[in-house]
Amino acid sequence: MRCLLFTWLAAVGGLLAGAPAARAQQPRAAPPDSARLSRRLHRLAEVNVRAVGPERFATGSRHYEADSATLSQYRNGTVAELLQDRTPLYIKSYGPGQLASISMRGTSAQQTAVLWNGLNIMLPTLGQNDFALLPVGANSGLAVQPGPAAALYGSGAIGGAVLLSTAPDWRPGLRGSVQVDAGSFGLRGSSAEVSTASAAVAMRVAASYRQALNNYPYTTQEFGGPVRRTLAGAALRHQWSLAPEVALRLGQAGQLTASAWFTDTDREVQPGITTGTNRHAEQLDQSRRLVLSYRHQASARAQWLVRAAAFEDVLNYHDDGLTSDSRVRTTQGQAEYTAAVGARGSLRVGAEVQHFSTTFREYASPLTTENRAAAFALLRYDPQPRLRLTANLRQATLPQGNPLTPTAGLEWDLWTNGVTPDSFSHSAAQALTLKASAARSYRAPTLNERFFNPGGNPSLRPEVGLGYEAGLLHRTQLAPRASLQTELTGYRQLVDDWVQWTPGPEGYWRPRNLRQVLTQGLEASTALTLRRGAHRLGARAAYAFTQARTRRATPDDLVPVGQPLPYVPAHTGTLSLDYAWHAWRVAAATSAASYRYTDATAQTFLPGYGLLGGSVGYAVRLHGAEALLLLQGSNLLNHAYESYEGRPAPPRALGISLRLSWL
Amino acid sequence: MRFSNYLIAPALALLSLAGCSPDKEVTVAPAAEKNNVYVLNEGAFSSGTGNGTISLFDKSTKAVTADVFQSVNGRRLGNLTQSMAVRDKRGYIVMNGSNKVEVVSLPDFKSVGVVTGLSSPRYFLPISTSRAYVTQWGTYNSVYNPIRAGIKVVDLITNTVVDSIATGSMPERLTMAGSKVFVANYGSNTVTVIDPATNRVTNTLTVGDAPNSFALDKNNRLWVLCGGFVAYLYDANGKYLGIDYANTTAGSLYGLDPANPTSGGTSRTFASNQRVPVDIHTNPAGDQLYFRATDAASYLGGVVRLGIADAALPSLTGTPFINGLFYGLGIDPDNGTIYTGTGTFSADKMTRYQPDGSKIDEAVVGAAPNGFVFF
């Protein structure tokens, strides 16, 4: 216990000690025109048909957005790697390229909604995403919103939401880049991105390829001492991603966008090192996602958006004794209308429908279908520029239960240095904002939970959560081009009807709405951005304290009250630094997680770990082109650890990449 | 700008997280004998990791020490804790998935050896101070016929496999009675009888389908519990549909004289094939038999009791002696306390009962407690 206290004190002390030192530097910048600011909030752009993002209706919630430098750095990596290095989220990973599932605010992997261009892309059979199957480079935006937000993002947004997006680049001309990567343990990769735009058409294509042998050494403790072995059966055979997008301007007020994302991943499934046998498990995952969206600016104060999407997800697993092939087709439709309400508000109303159709031998019927629908209304209202409110509501219609999930959010600038900032600008010299929100959330039972044979429970109710959070956001402009943003959030959420697979009198395991789980915690983060002369610096420290415990044991649920959930470390943190000076680029990322239990009754645990990674790069510019040579290293301290029990994580690994860009 | 002090302290703090471990620091190395109950936790299968553990229950303090092997030895026990045998203050822990037997000294549980070269080992029986038998199921060849099933003979001085003995299909529990070793061939309807002095098979007895366990009563009668063959239903595409009760045979109980096993045996068949009787034990007095009546698919069921002189077999489908979905059963040889373990394979507990079936207490243990060893 003592070491945890020390950690906490050191972290807090470090933040507090650092902040004033950084702040006491520069005179305040001149405040910008507050009238212009407050008006800009509620006016929709006329010329460009600009999207009004859902975060506009997420007042009072935390929001992390990977900046373009981070996205660029992880372009040949996966969303799992980026989140692991850059956020205090715990990613339970079997190894590089292997299954990586998320736990946000102490919830399960199925309780994080994953959206791509506004549409849920969680695998409908398992109801979760393998974040190792989501290459970063296909996207031009990656954001994380922790906390319950079902009114905005629908099913699964109990622990939070991961939001991936693409956006057409309307800057005229042709630009592109190609990159090749090579690294330790057989890592080879390449990627290309091309975008072009005229006045009426914008196009972007991003493609990437990666493979890895993952034949790295690890050490097991055996009778007679440590034994060094080489990992086998964990190769990433190939991982393709292709994401083309075309946007057309239709007249002055319309934009039609067609986006696609194809991924294809063939990999061996890493056997547990405690098992004496390798069952030669392998898995092929393919996803084909197509979205057609049309956005229309009805007036300066109103726009509507319709989306139609068709997804197909293939998951074929087989090993020495088992073959399990599944294919799910998802058809989704969304329509929403957004309008300004008076001078201070905006309202969005909309609806979505989803149809799932599954071919899976493990289900009772060869072709299984399910329909879900939801209607939502989102209201943002700013009674004063310094007080911003949202009230959101979603009514879902599911086969077993129709959860109604409202959200209320508030942001109140307690103190500003003479100006009124909004959420999206850093123009205030100094501002302290109170944020608070309360939300109900839900997760629809997955197709496996309902239809798996034997055991599927078609009458399973949706899981529901009721959560609150409150926090303080401090933003300060240290200098004209230096800002510091610090945020502290506390939250608490009770999730009920938590689904557990347990054996019963039927003679087989069956998912049941058994459990009640209370999650609570603290999140602290501080981010510094600085530009001075040729120096560009971004630094971010984030820490999370997470507690997830069972609240009530029903007679059927054998887990006693107060048990910590497995794979929820109490303490996680990251510290990242991106620095550029002339042609040089330096990045460093530290992440750490404390011990986590690996079973439901806190009998066994994995020790904590700390990791350090980084890169050094040099960019050469010639004739409108840039060549960037990057040396990268991960786990530089060569720490032996396991993110998931029995799966040794890779030791120190080095890589080199070369990128050529035409701007 | 001096941002260095802004960064270094949190960086150090973050890295220091790695040094932390759970608050409940483990106290182990029990000094006393007679009060230790080793709870064999097979391990969670949902994780695919199957990290088996052993929980130590102290009968005097009622304290449970989780994962005592890891706590003492600083390494994992392995995959699938199948069973454990004790001889001469040595514990032999059979790790089915890791294909090994871990040897610990008792009661301090320090690792003193390991037996490798096994293939799906199941149960361990020391036959002398220097020799032991391990049953193993072996593996399957390309047409799913078992290969390498049988007994491995282990030298307890060197902890190495020194010999093999052929048995019937899927040899399961084994026991010594009347100076012979009896091996239940779970994949058939036979019991292999071995003379431990020569390692030779002296007899193969025909019993009921799927013999799984033995109990020796106060009259030195050896009871052989047979579960019956379970048949499974598949559709034309090979998809599993459930248990085929039309072709599932009912369990049976055989009684024989270990000194003269070929004559004078009795056999009784259970009335229903809807439950599979497994895991037979006697009370300390040797006049009561306990076993579990399990579901054919989940392997879980309640505890059934039978007196050795009872004329009729108990019903397997009626209300059991102790109702529950149990995966493990053990009887304390000192006082007849009945230990049961649940089988969710994730969040499990053991529950203790008086010999009359009334509940004493319960405690959280590791995943899937399948047996109890008293030392």
TrEMBL record, chain A:
Q: Which residues form the TonB-dependent receptor-like beta-barrel domain?
A: 274-620
Name its cellular compartments.
Cell outer membrane
Presence of keyword Nucleotide-binding = no
Q: What is its main location?
A: membrane
InterPro entries in alphabetical order: Beta-barrel_TonB (IPR000531), Beta-barrel_TonB_sf (IPR036942), Plug_dom (IPR012910), Plug_dom_sf (IPR037066), TonB-dep_rcpt-like (IPR039426)
Q: Which residues form the TonB-dependent receptor plug domain?
A: 68-161
- The answer to whether keyword Glycosyltransferase applies is no
Q: Which family does this protein fall into?
A: Belongs to the TonB-dependent receptor family.
The name of this protein is TonB-dependent receptor
Give the originating organism: Hymenobacter negativus
Automatic annotation (TrEMBL), chain B:
Judging by the UniProt lineage, the source's domain of life is Bacteria
Its keywords, alphabetically, are: Signal
For the keyword Signal, the answer is: yes
Q: Where is the signal peptide?
A: 1-21
Q: Pfam families under this entry? A: DUF5074
- SUPFAM superfamilies with a match to the protein in the record: C-terminal (heme d1) domain of cytochrome cd1-nitrite reductase
Which PROSITE patterns does this one have? PROKAR_LIPOPROTEIN
Q: InterPro entries of this UniProt entry?
A: DUF5074, Haem_d1_sf, Host-pathogen_enzymatic-act, WD40/YVTN_repeat-like_dom_sf, YVTN_b-propeller_repeat
Its name, as the record gives it, is YncE family protein
Q: Which organism is it from?
A: Hymenobacter negativus
